[in-house]
């Protein structure tokens, strides 16, 4: 098993050769990861990853959701439960199941990332299968004990320039502080994500408000105090080097409530009487408020739209959030974002990066909007679309209307630390190939392609996120 | 006129040569046709097809709808009417019109299937046109009289392993019985389709209930008896070798009604007072019930979503159902199927195969759902999308999220018997080319492609439908 | 800088060489422009274009919207305001801004059209950039003073056979009359666009009714007189060589109101009391009425669906209509057009050409409808989709269901006169390449491709619009 140097490039010799050249010019650029879910804790503590299963499988719902789809119980894969259901704890057994079913991943980006990780990061030279599963497990386990496989060493080997975590609004950012005080040169910055405070009908919302109260040092018992607390926490995040916020929201609907209406909903929420429509209106209002705050404090505003979370409710009760059961729904931006864009869309102080799970909005809504409103930029092909065809569709449907410069480079959004270089490498290859395809058809010129590949791989992310 | 051995393959030499090899490994595999509309009667009676027009044109709305779209009256094409309007009965005249307008089919799969049929099945060696129309008609007519062009002979020549018909719930399956008793070795199995019993607002519904009552031997005058009758008929179909059910439904909305509500709607339907909302709720309930029954009896459950039937109402009154006037509408699966998937989606006894006419749901909803829920699988690109580009879009939008193993192989769904091998051949070629494209870009490996082409051409259908 | 003769063709040698041949057979065919926004006045007066900025930038929101999206104020680009806000009047300064930011257009069709125009029409041989901006400005300015760069000379050089303008219902068509009386051989015909009369809730609607009253010579104070006036104006347009009408409408919803209801809405509109639902119903009714009138007078009916106009309301108040702030929304045709198609869809006297901004409707709704209803044809990939990938998606999603002959050739829809040959040339190249791709994969035959390229480039437009 080896990584073909021309992988993911078109087989046409003209395109392939130019893609190789363009990719070659950026393959060694540092990685900017402006949004993701690797925890700062990992780098702050810098402990060895305990074993291959804990490193590759347990944090990565891309992997276990596909195994589950073929009838393999999540319990047998060791996914932790909240309801006391026992789960497999023998990590070797879990790895064996994974290896036995590795063929299921053919054609998915997960298989491409894993292949990259196993070969490039861990020096595995055979394709994982039932027979070699334990030998590869042992090899990986052995590597993981070495100092050069500790998180910070990997961070450096991966050539990461900035790594952004995602953190709740009330988070102490203790690990970020530790990292900063450690003298280590890696740059691991937080991103402010207030979702748990915005979802007023979630069961844990009251506790989140209490955590927020503790974090700000006053009781958050009115809407105005809530807003003040959010502003306060944004300032704190900014003081801890945050450059951005993020909201994961089902709908892009943005609408400012009157203070009176917002307060009334907030009070209903406090006594557990807010309903779904309250939640919808409160969320719409908070999108407006987050934009207003970004205008003031300069944090880049990100919104991720269109996932129906926790689709399988029994599994949600058993396994909790973020276990692969979030399913996309139709999204709408033209009408939903109109109020926000009318109010802030031409404000030079705002950068609004929009991500979607509904590709039908690329050409119809997002590219036309981003190709008009100065504040709005398009986030990369995201989540289920962080894939070769997903990226190609993104570029093909966005570029002709919005150009390249209203997009913001690649976002890995990963929970799997060792997948970071694999994901960025794949994107750089796909972008190089896309630009090569445009060049050989004389849609762009060679010198433009050379500038653009660098913009897509590095410059645009750095500029958009003010890094 | 000949069939180029590399047809439908990419012109890139690397892809073409590998596609040729992959296709070569499956081109002679038997055909499994797990869903379609060729009637068992044809094979039970094994009579010669009367003439080329009756064989190619009259049963195939793919053909006459396109002629109609260019202003050719359906009456002039001999499409039977229900309202007494006279239609052309001279089959040679109809064939001449078809030949005169054959150029209209350029770029459509219909033209590719017809070319395959005319050359491969009937030994025609000129492209149909105005001048040779009658000569080709005569040639075909001559062939059709020969024993080797009778239905069973063709079935054998086509190398069909299983052919599935689609049959109403009250159908006696008389022709299936005849076939079974004939000693002929062909395997022609029924599929249970209860649509006419589910559409409670259709004008013929009362008669369907009466037919059902006769079939089960008791009066179906309550909802509970209705359910009992459906279960009873499913058992009968199963005893007649059925392995699956099918429902063609406008919306995927699934929702269980209380027994009381279901009964109330059923009683309103019996007295002709059910309205559109009753129909919607009753249908949603029947999707749930069909899933429940499949869990019990093991029949594979298929749902075909998103066609607005009989769009042209005047033509519907004149020509009836299934005459090319069914037009797709937007579909939704994430919300609509949630209740069903929450209840049965992880039940190992259920296989739910979902077909859509709304390609926007492939990447957004269907692949994420099928890549999570163990019971759910994705049916092939269907109907208007049973075409080269349709299949490519399906694979490109589905594979990266759901892999190949959550899809079920090819479904021809045809009403035209001689089109079966043409349709399967086209799909095998497109799949071979798709896999070749992945391989030359090093997205999958050659040995994976070799396994996958067989899975897509044969294994997955056999496994999914338990054949 | 030069125009590569193989631009926009696939790099595969087989496809490229056939594309070159097919394109070669149509590149010199006359241009039929059946729909656009170049004003007849330009050709009637035949004055020199005042300067490069006025020619290229000021009329073309494709250009300035993208500059605006990157934070360049519309005022600094000289876009005229309605509210007295001062704007840049130094056209050289504006040109310099344009040149400084020309790199933003990489990958957009605008850059391809401009390159074509600068090289082919104006003999510029360097790529526009900050340094050569003024030199190129001077060169262009110099050219524009020459007789061979006057509008009629360019019209002739562009080899235009028919150019269609778009004109309000009350327009006097004075410039069309001048052109006709001038003895000049160019054919510049009007198209009847009644939008301003149909949008009963627009602020200017009363004045439009007054203008209509003056144009027809009687007071339009009832719905019946309104209809009579529309019919009257259509007759006038027809007498001035119009062959078509056009309506730009947010939704395709078509529904006939009773005379009583229509009259009631009309009377509410006259006293300024019509609301959004009135507008929706009145518009739906007018789609039906326009179809009815087309059946009578034979004008080809065009509808352009799915743009939410004037999304940025502050900019709308300042800069007015058609300044790049129209953003597409989801569209629906299957249900919305059912009443219209049931009533007129099989009437041989009607030609209904449908344009969409929602590409998801191509394969799902529009191709199935156009592949069935004789009256309905599909307009070309439009506006944001008038681009290489936009055209490819159109052909790929439409052809397999509707064939080529239910489409109508290319519509440039441009406001920029010198872009006309560039836009038609690009489309001819993309179509040639598409047909070459089908041919090398043996989906169509070479002789079919040769006929089809001429159909797409010329014949279909001529036939559809009865030119």
Overall number of strands of chain A: 11
Q: Output the CATH topology of the largest domain in chain A.
A: TIM Barrel
Q: How many domains comprise the coordinates of chain A?
A: 2
Question: What oligomerization state is this entry in?
Answer: homotrimer
Question: Which percent range fits the helix content of chain A?
Answer: 40-55%
What value does the Rg of chain A take, in angstroms? 22 Å
Could you report the average pLDDT of chain A, rounded to the nearest whole number?
97
Number of helical segments with 4 or more residues of chain A: 20
Secondary-structure-derived class of chain A: alpha/beta
Report on the biggest sheet of chain A.
4 strands, parallel
Architecture per CATH nomenclature, i.e. the level-2 architecture of the largest domain in chain A: Alpha-Beta Barrel
At the first level of CATH, the class of the largest domain in chain A is: Alpha Beta
The global form of chain A is: globular
